[in-house]
Amino acid sequence: MARRGLDAERVIATAGDVADADGLAAVTVARVAAELGVRGPSLYNHVPGREGLARGVALAATRELCAILRKAAVGRSGTDALVAMAFAYRGYALAHPGRYAALAAVATAAREDPELREASEDTLTVMLEVLRAWHLEGDDAVHAVRALRSALHGFVELERSGGFAMDVSLDASFKRLVRRLAASLG
Q1: Tell me, what's the pLDDT at 136?
Q2: pLDDT digits (tens, 9 = 90+) for 67-82
């Protein structure tokens, strides 16, 4: 019998909190159960083991990021929308390092998981909608999204690992990066 108040959403949220605090590798059935104050077998009523926890964190993170990117872009267009979306992306990645790490697993898993694929496609759609201001279509739009994702991810990873040691504003550098990307789009 499932513990009152315990559901899949709460289990996955707790797994996300563990990932953010101690890394994605720390997300285990035993650890999440301990955080929830239950025994490990209780989680199997809500998720199918460690893989279910990891998948759930990845799916929730993808949906969260999509909503954050969409909210940042609403009411803006062109470079302003791109900058707002980029700062929202960076903010999410820095605030939720474990959830962000789970996003990397989505690309591979989404090929075989329709729910992950849909969430991932929704996030890409938000990015494509922002890039629509540059009238990009087909392969050009794909190349632009790939460049944008690469630049954002690269900056975030360097920032998280302490790769920017010079005493110059990271926000200013990030904004310049995004503005230069926007200028390169045409």
Answers
A1: 95
A2: 999 999 999 999 999 9
Q: What share of the chain is helix, strand, coil (3-state, %, to 5)?
A: 80, 0, 20
Between CA 35 and CA 177 the distance in angstroms is 40
CA distance 104 to 143: 19
CATH number of 58-184: 1.10.357.10
- What does the pLDDT look like over 42-71, one tens digit per residue? 999 999 999 999 999 999 999 999 999 999
Q: How far is CA 15 from CA 12, 60, 62, 76, 181, in A?
A: 5, 10, 15, 34, 35
Structure tokens belonging to residue 35: 């955080």
Q: Can you tell me the mean pLDDT for 105-132? A: 89
Query: For the chain, which residues make up each domain, given as ranges?
Result: 58-184
Element (H, E) at 120: helix 114-131
- Would the pTM count as exceeding 0.90? yes
Whether 27 and 98 have beta carbons less than 8 Å apart is answered as: yes
